User: What shape does this take?
Amino acid sequence: MYNQKSYELGSKRSVIREIFEYAKTRAAEVGAENVFDFSIGNPSVPAPQEVQQALVKELTETPSVALHGYTSAQGDANVRKTISNNLKTRFNADIPADFLYMTCGAAASLTITLKALYEEGDEVIVFAPFFTEYRVFVEGTGAKLVVVGADEKTLLPDFNALEKALTPRVKAVIINSPNNPSGVVYREETVVRLCELLKKKSAEYGRAIYLISDEPYRELVYDKTVRVPFITNYYENAIVCYSYSKSLSLPGERIGYIAVSPKAAQAREVYLSVCGAGRTLGYVCAPALFQRVVAACDGLTADLSIYKKNRELLYNGLTECGFTCVYPDGAFYLFMKTPVADAYEFCEKAKAHDLLLVPSDDFGVKGFVRIAYCVQTETIERALPKFSLLAKEYGLK
Assistant: This one.
């Protein structure tokens, strides 16, 4: 009567959403100010003023029929041309407008791309820790998810394990930098090493291994010395999946794009397959109004100084309590090692202090929690004494 797999996905939320919903229930019981919800990556700073200005301009100057009408299935031509020009200016990346496909955010970008590439028997590699929904996206195409571990201290890929995992069945590798859940950024040396290995294996097997770069946090880096390499400049068989949800604080608007490298193997065919996958999934003609808005604001960001302040406050506060954390160069998440092996057990202990954290198991590793610091700074300030009490329960300093 119905699809069993879809039922399972619909009847059980992701662990992140489960905690998010629990927070609402708990807030009704004790007051929202007494619940310290670090579960979800919902931007806490307003969209830049230019977003509102662009909205007002479109609403007042563009005729309603044109403004709210259909665009081309792959997105408005002028929007794609603007983004293409910006990619060239900002990153020296040559992505023609006809290799860009506008989408309803990063999830749509990834699901379309994976469906466009999938052939029977394919495998897709992800690096732990990885965003929990990658498993859903990959397995939803019929492909097999292959998880490659990371160095526990740096959370960078284990290249020895990767080389062993790169069998002839691997169609693609997904990277996410800055990373959700860790905040780790893949520096140039890591990207170069990864790309060289993929080039070697592609040549050895006589088929392209595609590198899918999931980039909703591309602009969310806080130190001038940290640079996020633009993948198509390092690897020809690359596809970028982008979302404006985090950079422009627009998570509810669901707008982003897919950029296929024109140098990729069978690049035109891959792009047309993206168009076909979008058609199959019903992801044609992303929201017209916000296509125009993000084109006008492409490259801008919300006020990142608040996230930077939150990062320093949280990292310093937790390490002073005795917790071990991986220092995040980007995104707005902090990955903290739990003082016991069972992260779920630790999260239940934290709940007693109304600290809501996400256990790491669904991210592909054990013994960590993810803490989203895209919250009000005051929330972190009031939560740190709670963390201190929690640390003492485990005999930390």
Notes: The CA atoms of residues 350 and 389 lie 10 Å apart. Residues 188-205 form the longest helix (18 residues).
